[in-house]
Amino acid sequence: MMKADSECCDETECPLSNEALKSYHNATPRVKEPVINLSRRNNKSNRRKDPPKEKSLEKQLEKSMGKFQECQLKATKCRNDYLMTLAATNTTLQKYFKQDVMSLIDCLDLGYVSQMKRTLSAFHSAELQVQKLHTDCLRRLEIHLKNLDAGKDKDLFLFANPVHFQPPVPFQYQPHGGDEVSTVVGHHDILYDELTSKYDNSLSRVETLRMETDEIKKSLDAVLSTMRDERINILQEDVTRLFHSLSPKNNLIIQNTDVTRSSSLRRKQTSMESEVYYLGKYKDYLQKANSQARIQSRLELIQDALSIDASQQRVVPQRHAGKSMKKMRKRPKSVFKTTLFGGDLEEYISITGTDIPCVVESCIEFISLYGEDPLPDLGAKGDVHLWPAYSKPTSGNFLHRSFQLI
């Protein structure tokens, strides 16, 4: 069941999965069974005063309490997954009917209005070249051309079909029995850690999808701009050359017409390839944008749950206790009666039997490693505090004599 709970937040799941609803309604009644058993055993323990049976009843009470907590935890997790699935489904529906429908209409329009505008403009130019007749009709036609607007047509189309393009009523939360909690909660340590992990994964996934959708949107804008520029450069609106009178240059006109026809076929082929590429990219954009919206809705629910727990000053138990302070051990006393600092070096060497005192070797090694100025770049305070002892004025003559002997 834990595996199913972790998989139900996958972004590829169907909106409003029946598994989340079934898991929630199946897990909630199980919480009441341990409570009933617990109350029965409490009544039995109050009636019977036999010590052995009391111990047995106490064990049964502890077992029932553990089972009750386990069932309560599972029910809470199922409710959380159900609420997140519900929010994702409602968000997807709202996004589709408020944003995607408009965008799909623009995508499937395929430049119909602009193409119609260019066609009518060509017809208008042709009529002016044939004869300047029907001036009033052509003037009204020109006015209609200026009034063509794809945005207004889309609004009128949606207004004329309100049943098919209005978002439905959002799915409502259906609690089981007397369950009054309608928000995602994380008051338990396991739930808190699980929600935190889901929050981090969802946040990284949302950022990835946002970058991918931005890149796809830039590609779509670039392709759309290129297609518009190509259509404008074709200069299909200028058809005056088709109505020139016959002249000695007629053969040249025919040759130019053939070249224009072949280039027009190539442009149509290129335009079809660009349109197919644009539709494929737009499909990817819709899929990634919908996934981003679903994950973002779950992310907001988890963020609200974690912020509520933080506002209530929830104390998370520490799993790793701090290291205990080390006890200071006394330094062993010297077995020699002579003194090193403030004494005679030759006498110290003769008594100890060493050629070079240990403290001098330590000083030489320290200076060779860190230089004469050991204080920079030292993080350990113990090493920093040892250096003034080595270089204090009382031992300056002793170190000077030691280096001379070495």
From TrEMBL:
Q: From the Swiss-Prot or TrEMBL record, give the protein name.
A: Putative SLIT-ROBO Rho GTPase-activating protein 1 isoform X2
* Biological classification of the source: Eukaryota, Metazoa, Echinodermata, Eleutherozoa, Echinozoa
Write out the entry's keywords from A to Z.
Coiled coil
* Residue spans of biased composition, Basic and acidic residues class: 48-58
**Positions of region (Disordered):** 36-58
Presence of the UniProt keyword Coiled coil in the record: yes
Native species of this protein? Stichopus japonicus
Task: State if Ribonucleoprotein is listed as a keyword.
Answer: no
